[in-house]
Structure formats: C-alpha cells, structure tokens
Design a protein that fits this description.
Length: about 525
C-alpha cells in the first residue's frame, strides 16, 4: 500500500476480496454488511438475474412465424454445411436416419429435422406489422426444446421482451451507417458487453445496477444486510454495489463456504485447535487497526456462514423439491444442470428469508457456453432445454414455500452479451446486437411480447431491412429501460432510478409494463 488507509476505508474494502473467485473460499465470505438502520417492510421481493454467458442466438429462441417473416428466416438459415433453420410450426419430428419432408435431408439427433416444429405462442397484444414487408399479421413461436416456457407463457407467468440491447440513445440504421449517433463502446466484445449489460459500462466497471438496487434497499434487511446481494454463480459485477457487496454461495446442502480450520471438529489431530484458530482470527483486542478490522470481518464471516447453513437446515427449506434430473435431449445422456442447482440454492435462500429477517434480495445465476460460432445445432438446443427445465423447476418450487405461494414476490429475468447474426456462417452464427429476453414471475404481466419485435431479413434481392446492420438487429429497447422497469417493481424510487440509469432520459418510455 502506497497511501494511508483508515478503518472506514478498510471496512469498505473488506468484501472486495470476494472478487478473487472460487479459488479463494475464505475470501468468498469477506463481505461487508451495510450499516443502515433497519426499516419495517410489509413484504418480501427478490430479483433474480439469469445471465447467459456467450451471447444466446435469439433468432432460434423466439421466432416470428408469419409467412413473410418465416420465409426470410428460413431462406437465411436453411443453408451451409449444417443448416440451423428450425422447422415450421406443426412439423412432426423426423425419426433419425429418415428423410425430412421439409428439407429433404436425413435427420440426425442434432439436426432441426429431428426436433419437430417450433412451439406456437399467442401474445395477448398484437405486434405491429413491420414496414416494407408483405405481412398482414404477426405470429410467434419458441424453440422446440422450450416446452416448459411455452406452458409458463400460456399460464401468464412468462413474458418476452423483444429486441433489447445496450444503447446510448435510440438509433436508426441510417444514423448507425453515418456514425452520427453514439453507440455502446466495444459493441461486439464479449467481456465489454457482459459488463455493459450488468453495469452499464465496459469491462472494469466497479458496480452493477443490481448491487446499486441493493444499496438503496438494504436497510429493509435489518442486521442481515450481508444477504442483500447473493450470487450462486461466482463473482458478478451485476451484484457489486457502492456499499453492498455480494455474498457468494455454493450449490451444496450447506452452501455457505466456511473457514475449514475454524469450523471443523479437529485440526492437526487436536479437537481444541479449531476453537483456538477461531479465537485468534476473531480477536479484536489488538493494537494494530488492520488486525482489528481483519478480525471483525473474519468474525462476521464465520457468523454469517453459521447463520446461512443453519437456516438451510430448517423444515421450510428442506421441504422444497430438489432440482430434477436432467437428460440431454440430443444424446439421451443424463447431465448436470448447473443452472437448476443454482436456482435450487436461490429458492432455498428465499425460503429462509423470514428466519434471516431479509425483505429485499437480488440474486445472480448463470449458464455459459452460448458462443455458437460453430456447432450451434449440437450446443444451443441442449442449453435452451436446461434453461427451460431450470426456470420451470424454480417456478414450481416457489409455488409452495411452507404453504405459501411466493411466486408473486420473485421476478426472474434473462440477459446475455448480445444475440447472434441473422444469417448462418455455415454451422453457427456470429456476434450481433439486439435480442429477446424472458421475464418470469407471479407479478409479471405474462403471456405477451413487450417492445417491438424487429423486421426480419438480410439485405438481399432489393430488400432493405431497417432494423438490420450487417446481420445484427439494432435494438429498439435499451438495457436501461429493462433495468428501470425491474427496479421500479423492486421498490426503487423514480429519482433513484434516474441516478442509476442516467441514459434513461434519452428514451421515450421509462417503464415497459411487463411487471
């Protein structure tokens, strides 16, 4: 350290050690609790961010199936060495080894012909007809492996937000081509766009909008502000606040990572050694301010781990259903659905919220592997099936928490670096921009598509797509509007939303109405 550091500064940095990641389990526990006074809160609310790392291909997730849109989609993607065009609604799966009546190709386990047609959904509100197309109405569907989400959409607990992405301000194709309007920095970079989605700034950002929500509402959690921002997926800038620091959990039965030598029953063969270690590392009666502050943080870490692991042993938590076994729909092999396990931990934390005395929590879970430049047919379908199973499990688990339906108190939303290009590169798709996201929960105005679903089609044959630049869709809804809508439901004031999302004033609609 080259400069001075007082006790206040040290305590403010105490939780930053969590950024060291899973390789430093002790550091995962060094999270500083907020000091705001407790306020009474009549309810409980949680936001759950489900991040799809790598850039999910939205064009094969939520599809427009009207004749005009489908024709352009199928023409663009039914090409290449391994075509990625899905089959139209109502198409029966072609048995592996047989010829598809739609494409004339032999069906393989990892080819769209074997999966059957996309799954229709009927939004409550009609989407506008794209300018310059021959469509008279718009119809929509989901990927064939998103059956559980089709059900949730029909039940009104799942909504789709169309064509959302990082934006500085609204931008047209002409403005983009003329470079007359600012666009997000490092637009097609994974790391930078992941950070911009989570923190509204490129890689290196220090706080995310989920963590800043936590800063504002942590006082509702009384003495347990430490459990305001919780990750089941490692360190994420989304949960980093200015005072709130994320608390990281594993997916085990006792998820709090403990200090082994302090928590164990023996150390070096001695049954007394663990307690001696605990006394040493929590002793604040020392002359060094650094050692005293370190002991304070370590003591809080030990106490927090004991509190969480004890809460997870309570009946209301253990009675929750466990995440079901998962079978890869392409291979038939049983695999671990890490996303379902993360959401299982989140469900248990929500079940324990009453005993922990918390009223507002922001959670983070994630699933990687979405960078499908190649082999999209053998990668994305399995990942989408995992998302569908995990989200459906989470919805069901929250339906009965100690005899109470908690779904109206929890809103889960997806996010990803960006979508993929509209055209195929042969067996995959490249980095793009705007895409569709899902929002799930009992408070969600589900069964509808929000925002403006884009015009589909590549600029070929005299067709000039106003929403497309080089295969990427220009977003018509910003991450700022997405986050602001979630924040307002969570309880963040309009004034504070303006501070967290300063670019919100550039957009006509502050709130999108999906919740």
């Amino acid at each position: 350290m080259s400069g001075g550091m007082d006790r206040r500064r040290l305590l403010g940095l105490g939780g930053a050690f969590s950024a060291l990641g899973v390789g430093a389990p002790f550091a995962l526990q060094l999270a500083a609790a907020g000091s705001a006074a407790s306020q009474s809160a009549p309810d409980y609310k949680a936001l759950v961010c489900l991040f799809l790392y790598g850039g999910n291909d939205s064009h094969n997730t939520v599809l427009a199936t009207d004749t005009d849109s489908w024709g352009r989609y199928f023409a663009a993607r039914n090409t290449g060495a391994d075509p990625i065009a899905l089959m139209p609604p109502g198409t029966a799966p072609t048995p592996v080894g047989q010829t598809s009546p739609v494409t004339g190709r032999t069906a393989e386990a990892d080819s769209p012909e074997a999966w059957g047609g996309v799954l229709p959904i009927t939004p409550k509100t009609a989407q506008p007809i794209p300018a310059g197309t021959n469509a008279t109405t718009r119809t929509f569907a989901l990927h064939p492996f998103l059956g559980p989400l089709q059900t949730l959409f029909g039940q009104g607990r799942l909504a789709v937000l169309a064509n959302v992405g990082t934006l500085v301000q609204p931008i047209t194709k002409a403005q983009y081509q003329a470079k007359s309007v600012a666009v997000p920095t490092s637009l097609f970079s994974h790391n930078d766009q992941q950070s911009t989605w989570q923190a509204l700034a490129t890689e290196g950002a220090r706080s995310g909008w989920g963590g800043r929500f936590g800063d504002l509402l942590a006082s509702m959690n009384g003495q347990n502000t430490l459990f305001t921002a919780v990750s089941a997926a490692g360190n994420a800038v989304f949960l980093a606040g200015q005072s709130v620091v994320q608390y990281q959990l594993s997916t085990g039965a006792q998820p709090a990572v403990t200090i082994t030598s302090a928590q164990g029953s023996t150390l070096f063969g001695s049954s007394l050694a663990p307690s001696r270690v605990r006394d040493l590392i929590t002793d604040t009666n020392v002359t060094s301010s650094f050692a005293a502050d370190y002991a304070t943080v370590a003591g809080r870490s030990i106490a927090a781990a004991a509190t969480v692991n004890s809460a997870f042993g309570q009946g209301v938590v253990t009675a929750l259903p466990t995440a079901p076994a998962y079978t890869n729909p392409l291979t038939g092999r049983v695999e671990t659905n890490t996303l379902a396990l993360q959401l299982q931990t989140v469900a248990r934390m929500i079940a324990a919220s009453s005993s922990l005395g918390v009223r507002r929590q922001v959670f983070f879970v994630s699933l990687g592997g979405w960078d499908t430049h190649d082999f999209q047919n053998s990668t994305q379908p399995n990942l989408l099936a995992k998302v569908a199973q995990a989200m459906s499990y989470f919805d069901g688990a929250l339906a009965n928490v100690g005899g109470i339906d908690r779904r109206a108190q929890v809103t889960t939303f997806t996010a990803s670096d960006f979508s993929r290009g509209f055209t195929t590169n042969g067996d995959g798709t490249d980095h793009a921009w705007g895409g569709c996201q899902f929002i799930m929960g009992g408070a969600v105005n589900g069964g509808d598509i929000y925002g403006q679903y884009p015009t589909l089609g590549a600029d070929v044959g005299g067709f000039n797509n106003p929403d497309n630049i080089g295969g990427a869709q220009i977003p018509t809804t910003s991450v700022d509007q997405y986050g602001a809508t979630l924040g307002r439901w969570f309880g963040v004031s309009d004034a504070d939303i303006d501070v967290i999302f300063p670019r919100l004033r550039n957009f006509g609609s502050r709130y999108l109405g999906f919740v």
